[in-house]
Amino acid sequence: MLELTMATVSGEDAGATAGMSMAEAPSLPGAVLRVGRDRSMCPLVTPDDWLFVSRVHLEFGCGPDGGWQLSWLRGSQAEPSSEVRLRVGEHVQPLAYGATVTLPRGGSGEIVIQDRSAPRSVNVGFYHEV
User: Fold this and answer.
1) Residue among 26, 27, 29, 25 nearest 43 (CA)
2) What pLDDT digit, counting tens, does each position of 71-123 carry?
3) Which of 106, 128, 130 is nearest to 2 (CA)?
4) Residue 97: CB partners within 8 Å, gap ≥ 6?
5) How far apart are CA 112 and CA 8, in angstroms?
6) How far is CA 118 from CA 15, 17, 21, 100, in A?
7) Are the beta carbons of 125 and 4 closer than 8 angstroms?
8) In the chain, at which end, N or C, are there fewer CB atoms within 10 A of the end residue's CB?
């Protein structure tokens, strides 16, 4: 099971959890959870006017072994208007545009989508049950 919690935070909301939402999926091969602005494809949806987030920005996919991967999907622009970071424990790793990383089994952490032009972010916490 992969559990996700998402909060959208802007400068005036710093330190608060605005717009908290949750989603989960069983660790079955082919299971997918997405984060973005497109309500038809993403169970975790950001505000429509937050254009630094793509229609489908992040994709969590379950592989054949029941492990989960995180992909920052390439959008319609050659260069992104955001940065994505993955934090697991004390380790923080920037994610490259279009890259995929494996999430730790039985672990938890946070993915932050940071707007490059304003003090806004999308914070997605994850917990991967074994």
Assistant:
1) 25
2) 999 988 889 999 999 999 999 999 999 999 999 988 899 999 999 999 999 99
3) 128
4) 72, 74, 79, 80
5) 10
6) 16, 17, 22, 26
7) yes
8) C
Is residue 54 within 8 Å of residue 42, measured between CB atoms? no
Rounded to the nearest 10°, the torsion over CA 18, 3, 62, 44 is: -20
Segment 31-63, tens digit of pLDDT: 999 999 999 999 999 999 999 999 999 999 999
Structure pTM? 0.91
- Nearest CA to 20 out of 32, 6, 9 is that of 6
DSSP 42: -
Read off the tokens for 83: 């940065």
